[in-house]
Structures are given as structure tokens and as C-alpha cells.
Design brief:
Length: about 150
């Protein structure tokens, strides 16, 4: 059982999402998703491994996650993407809020309204990506691995 936001968790999640059919972004998704591609970067602060960046790419009907460790236990940066991430949307939040969102104890709207997350970039693309992720989650429901927090 992988711990939330670790490389093992990302790998398990990517495996569970393989082959899950995803909907098109839809006409209200905004110009940033006109080509069907969006990159959402979550900057999560205060994880047990330090600050991380979870990079989610939605493209050609697939979702793929990558993990950047920006302040790991060794204190050094371990980039898995280039510094210019090409993010459509960047979300910054604390580890506790990321865990609450993942577990369903906090909705994105509640987090935004309470000021618990900061968002920059194309909000229409963020809304469209949330709909796509909801479909991905339900499509992978039987194959999503258990997670520890």
C-alpha cells in the first residue's frame, strides 16, 4: 500500500488509469484546452518527503502523473521535468489539504472559497480537468490502489 504523493503512489495511480476512457474537455473548457491538452501542477507543501510538485498531464484522452521532489529528505532537488513546466494551471496547497481533497473530506470549491489553495492560470481549464478527473476516478474505481496518508 503506497503512501500518498510518493513515487510508488504515482506509479500505482498511473497503472490504474491506463486504458480508462476519458471524455473530451467540452466546449466550455477554455482556449488553453482547445487542443485537448492541459498540464496541472500541484505544488504541495509540507509532505513527509518535503515540498513536491505533482504534474498531471491530460492529453489525447489519457491522464499521466509525474512527481517532482523539490525538497526531499536529502535536501536536494530531484527534478523529473524541466523547470519550465508549461503548466496550464498551477495549484499551491498544504499537504493536509491535498490529503483531504484526495480522501473526499474537502471539495475543490470549499478549498478555494476558504482560501486553502491558491490557483494561477486558466480556471476554465481547471474546471474541465476536474470533470475529466472525476470520470477517470469512476472509470478506474475497481483498480485504484489503497493509499496511506
Amino acid at each position: 500500500m503506497a503512501r500518498f504523493l510518493t513515487p510508488a503512489w504515482v506509479e500505482e495511480l498511473n497503472l490504474a488509469l491506463e486504458g480508462v476512457p476519458l471524455p473530451d474537455p467540452g466546449p466550455d473548457a477554455g482556449l488553453a484546452m482547445a487542443d485537448g491538452r492541459v498540464v496541472v501542477v500541484e505544488e504541495v507543501h509540507g509532505t513527509p518527503e518535503g515540498d513536491i510538485r505533482l504534474v498531471m498531464t491530460i492529453d489525447a484522452g489519457t491522464v499521466h502523473l509525474e512527481l517532482d521532489t523539490t525538497d526531499g529528505p536529502s535536501g536536494r532537488t530531484t527534478p523529473q521535468r524541466d523547470g519550465g513546466d508549461g503548466a496550464t494551471v498551477t495549484i499551491a496547497l498544504a499537504y493536509a489539504d491535498a490529503a483531504a481533497l484526495s480522501q473526499g473530506g474537502l471539495t475543490p470549491a470549499e478549498a478555494l472559497n476558504a482560501g486553502r489553495i491558491r490557483v494561477r492560470g486558466d480556471l476554465a481549464a481547471l474546471a474541465a480537468s476536474q470533470r475529466i478527473l472525476d470520470e477517470a476516478r469512476s472509470g478506474a474505481a475497481g483498480t485504484l490502489p489503497p493509499t496511506t496518508y
